[in-house]
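User: Predict the full complex structure for these chains.
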Amino acid sequence: MRNFFATQTKTMLLYIIVLFTANLLIGQKLVTGIVKDAQTGEPLIGANIVSKENTSSGTITDFDGSYTYETVSGTTTLVFSYAGYNTVEEVINGRSVIDVDLAAGKILEDVVIIGYGTVKREDATGSVQSVSSSSFNRGAITSPQELLAGKVAGVAITTGGGPDEGAQIRIRGQSSLSASNDPLIVIDGIPVENGSVSGNRNPLNVINPNDIESMTVLKDASATAIYGSRASAGVILITTKKGTLGSKLKIGYSGNYSLGTTANRVDVLKADEYRTLVEATYPEGSPARALLGTSSTDWQDEIYRTAHAQDHNVNISGSTASIPFRASIGFTSKEGLLKTDKFERYSFGLNLSPKLLDNTLQLNVGLKGMLSNNQFAERGAIGSSLSWDPTQTPLNAASVYSGYTTWLDTNTGFPNGLAPANPIALLNLRNDQSEVSRYIGNFSADYRFKFMPSLRANLNLGYDHSNGDGSLFIPGGNTVAFSFQKDFGGGINNTYSQQRTNSVVEFYLNYKKEMKDHDIDLMGGYSWQKFYRENSFRNSDAAGTTAFVLERKNIAEELFLVSLFTRLNYSFKNKYLLTFSLRSDGTSRFSPDTRWGLFPAAALAVKMIENNNNYLNNVKLRLGWGVTGQQDIGSPYVYQPVYQQSLFNASYQFGETFINTYRPNGYDYNIKWEETTTYNVGFDYSVINNKLSGTLDIYQRNTKDLLNYIPVPAGTNLTNFISTNIGNMVNKGVELGLNYTALKNSTTSWDISFNVAYNTNEVTKLTATDDPKYEGVPTGGIAGGVGSTIQRHRVGFAPASFFVFEQLYDENGNVLEGQFKDRNGDGAVDDLDKYLFKKPAADVILGLTSNFKYKSFDFSFAGRANLGNYVYNNVATDMGYIQRLYHPTNYLQNIHRSGLVNNFLQQRNLTFSDYFVTEASFFRMDHITLGYSFDKLVGNYLRIYATVQNPFVITKYKGLDPELGNGIDNNVYPRTQTFLFGVSVDF
Amino acid sequence: MKKWIAFIVLTVSFTFSSCFKDLDTVPLDPNLITSGTVFNNPDAYKQFLAKLYAGFAVSGQEGPSGQADISGIDEGFGQYLRGMWYHQELTTDEALIGWNDQTIYDFHELDWTASDGFTYAFYSRVFYQIPLVNEFLRETTDEKLGSRGVTGQLRTDIADFRAEARFIRAVSYWHALDIFRNVPFVTEADKVGSFFPEQTNAADLFKYIETELLDIENKIKAPRSNEYGRADRAAVWTLLAKLYLNAEVYTGQKKYTECLAVCEKVIASGFTLEPQYQNLFLADNHKSNEIIFPITFDGINTRTWGGMTFIIRAGIGGSINPLESGVSGGWGGTRTTRQFVEKFPSDLTGIISEFNPDKNYPKVYVPGSYQSTPFNGSDSKNALTSPKSNKIYEGYRYFAQDNAELVILRNPSSTLGGKLGDNGADGTLETGGANIKAGSKGLYYIKVDLNNNTYVLEKQTWGVVGSATPGGWDNDTELTWNAELGYLTAKVELTAGDIKFRANKDWVLNLGDTGADGILEAGGNDIKITKSGGYEIRLDLDSPDYTYELRLTSFDRRGIFGTKGQNIDINTLNDVAIFNNGYAVLKFKNITSAGKTGSNVDFPDTDFPMFRLADVYLMASESILRGASGASKAKATEFFNIVRQRAYTGSAGNITENNLNLDLILDERGRELYWECHRRTDLVRFNKFTTADYLWAWKGGVSQGQAVDPKFNIFPIPSADISANPKLKQNPGY
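Assistant: Here is the predicted structure of the two-chain assembly.
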């Protein structure tokens, strides 16, 4: 029955094709044949056959790889192509039967992955850029984000300093104020959530970077809108390595060992300078002087170390029983620069990609997992190491607080709670660890209908489960100064656990037809995704005193996203390419009245110049428009009126009873999607005999109905701030990507790639009413006064612009401490004189990568620059003043050198001065690598290499590091400078 | 093929419609209950009511912080009482702060702006309470209760709850009126949602609060008949009194007669002044019969970084011992000004002469059966000393039982040898000799002479004599042993003159103080008393040196300041940031009246007395002076002196009718009610808040103080709300 049906269909299709082309083809010659995979001999379904002379004439193979082509006049050569295979040209030369075997080729160079499908690179209509494993960053890299830093125009990646710390990824700047600005990450077709399970440092560390084949960045809305409500901040598609059919068994090993040190330190006073300053500031016999010690301690030396790291990976790939597979295991161990900080991960990956049912069914089974053990150092040690008086010794045998020197309250003899804790005690006495496991399983079945090879059905199932268990223990018995509690014995004994489960079901149908001048690729599908998380925790002091026990179990929440989507790619004469997509998204986060959002997009591309052999080889113009959304604002129940019960320690006394209270929470029933409309004009080009190629994009992104956390009109809600849709924002920018083949001959090759992106970002609306006096939303918490903020989102300015006083200077340019300009001229300097000055985001970001090979040597480097980014030096404002030397509760503190240099006296004069908002443009060399490859020395291939990561930074900024996600420099974890030796072998 | 398509379409649409239902989620956390089901639990009404009260005390649903009620500010700053305290106290002579938090200096310098974050936080707190009450009233209408089938006792209780909820709303509207004046106005008729509330004015808001209070007056429980912590009729009256007393400021209409009338109702309703002023502010002040309406706190169950935690801990720093206030440590922030301290007489602590500290003299030890751990030689305090280092050791021991026994040790640990006893009770000491035996219980003088191994053990009584004492130089006023304190004490009325101590009513052994250094010498000079009054005399014969302390008991006991290591002045702007400048205020403590530390040294148990009886007396007195009809100045003086008498624990501070005037009442309110969030309102009512009539350190941002723009008599409507609500107009001048 099925065969009959299929045969019928086939016959019918052939008949249609014949009819359709009959008019043009009368009297022409028929060519038939079968197109097969060169390695496996399997027939290739849907391969393209076109006339080289007349590219509008062509056909495709059917389910058994056979084709019938009726030549048009002038055709002497046929071009056989198939996605992922090398193209073959055959001169007809009078033959009527031409069978062709196509060899699997460099997939990624021909095809780019887009949401729910792939497209030939030359046919892409959106701003899509992929980076393959060969172009990734090198070095001691444990997180996938780092691979991409500096590689794609308009993608800024800021990593943290800790081992395996997550990274902030911003694609084309900031698109939201309160909702997430993190791009959607899709791993092998499974959209994963941005958050990380408790106890984990990096949501992407489930993937071993060595297993990644490519990362594709979808930047403009015409590309991202297929992901609808989660695409406003861009989309990154990660594809892991897979086995290839028929390939031989291959075993590879790669490993490296590295040493890391702090590249820079915060400039606080040395012991001698400090002693001199204290003696100059406080008279003889004063309590401050009496406290001075006789030692010379560099407290930063005491907390940092040379961090060892190693990374080992083994992978096996090949094909057994016609099932291509790739399996890998990895082990990573990385110490933090901060003593006691450590990350260890065991990871594995498995991909199986068999084809079944006469190759009509392509299955992909993937399983990725990791198990990590984390030791978290107390990062408070960074700040307290800067604060500690350098004339004191770190250890003191007489100290009852486990032998660590401690500032005591002179009245009570107990630790002084206001004084900085001993940083070494903070590190050594705290045992903060977690064990995190995660696995992502994905199964996809792609079925090409026998009766209609143009039609595919794709089912994609994903299951992403993570589990984090952690504990924090600090001994009690009042031997630990920083967790001292007079009556209850102090210490901490906390445990927590979290599970997160993310399930995905997606199904789509794809109809792809290439017909003469008209190519159609139509896709329509459905997606269902559930996010579930469950927390438990138990907090107590070390002894488990009842008053300090706080325990909650199985606090669960869930979120559902349901979507329908469709996309049409149409190409006319393979020159005009049109894409239209539409996605309808529903989220359980919003009310039934507002939960559905519609996200359309359209793009037009014109291949203006194609395969011209002169200086301009290829030029393609792209025009794109699309609407994307954002709904990721934390709580999944924001629209619902709910009552929240208090914990016991926030209850209220009635008579002799303490009543646990019920609180109705604030809510906004009308909350809805934030929408971003993007316009993009782009060019893809290759010039000078294809030596220079790249992209140029100009875009504007208008975000409206910003999910904004703003004050409610007083009296109208059950809280004072809610998340609601108020405000607009505009991003504009230009991006240029260049890839240049500087040299290429039999012994030498040199490739340079460079990208530069300019972006401006402006808030255009923030309140329901247009109040020009509105000062904006405070943001950017700083040290130096509890609750102080240094930034504002305000209309007419970039988000998070610094909100400061204008510092006055004397005629020699010295700061006049505490004197600020009366900007509004009302005769008084008060809060109304603050102004918005600069912003943390860079105007321009650049990336540069160079790969040079000479015979067996390879030499590469990569660097990045940010221009026009500003940093508020919070270390200087919090620590750079003389009054800080001695605290009235009788302890000494070190100060930042700027306080000595400028002779600043007190903190209130510094905190909001624009003097401390300084330009922090920089160029950072990310890595320099030198390698040598041996043939047949060991196995088939052996390469050894040495890398220096983060060798230098060029900047005018005087603080620790100019590269900060939020523009506030406050006790940041220093970035590592790494020296690495590595080896990779293939057997 | 059509069949296939039809099948796919059907399957897909079926799948879709069922999956779309997934989008209707409800919270899974049992602590989050949807509004539709929460009142299935009958306890929910009271738990919701408790939240209305808790809104004054905690900052969110987790203590001391977490799940905050309001945001946009550090949670501790956003706590109601702390916000009120910033506005009512930091702006006045009673308090200033040395931190660098945001715009916090603006409060004491009286130069805040409409964009002030603390002001917005407190305003938000006020307008958190009001909609919360509105929601409560909407959820407890007869209609809703009927539809939920609420009947019987619960229905009766809910009627009480509703009256109390309206009282809580009236308190917050009163704060809004007093501090912000022209505020948005919402009632239970305004549901939660997006709308712009209308701005009200002082006259209308005054009328509304008055009408509300008069309406609930007879619906709320009678005075002192409600559970502790919950409001009653006296609380309603007190709030009315505060409203009426300031009516002239708010609306230009005098309401002093009405004020006096409600004050008298409170006075007649059974509250009594707490005999000891200090006890009003201690960890067990819930026992006080004076507090009309408290905000309750508890170290275990009601924790916050605002509230009493802030008031107590921020006021401790420098050399002030936090343990003496029952907390683990201070935050070194708040102090007071010289101008405020000077409102108290100069002998504000009442201690005229203090015990002198220990000196390090050679010692022997006299453990015995009289100790709580008998013959505990390692108690190093149990020593006799040789001030002249001549091997003659002397001292006193009190034996609480008859026939006490003791030995002499050369070293605190008997295992080191040198234990001396008296074989044969002959007054000579033998190594390893028998225990020395005393006679009947009492205070014994012990003298050991190791030059010739002899000792003296003699029972003595001690008294105080002299021209300053009631008995003159001939009749001793006897000192009695205070076992808890460990020294001899007597309470005596002294006049100006001299005193001495003597043993056994005889001059054989008498002690005076040569050099007035606090150390007593045998046959020393007379001790001079310059100020007459009630004294507590303490004689310490246990220290190496014999010392004594004279405590004036009839003084104004309300000036509870920390002066140790503190300068009274704050000379420069830099000094504001340094805790040691300005006296500390130690009125509130996390210690019970019995001297025990509260349940948690980090979070006090002490309740905040929002309304208390002494305030009502002073309001009554003031309203008479301001022209309340139907009462005489004599009555005003009587009310005034009631408060004074408690302050002086006697009539020493009483004033006469002629001395009573409004300025005295303002000062008295300062002395009585400082740090209780009344001061700004009082200074405004006396037109001394912004004017040059009264200046204090750093008022207007200069050390000697200066007048500021009268606009500062009220606070601005926060600019955040002006932007959020186009119907609001800013207060004049901002």
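The longest helix of chain A spans residues 2-25.
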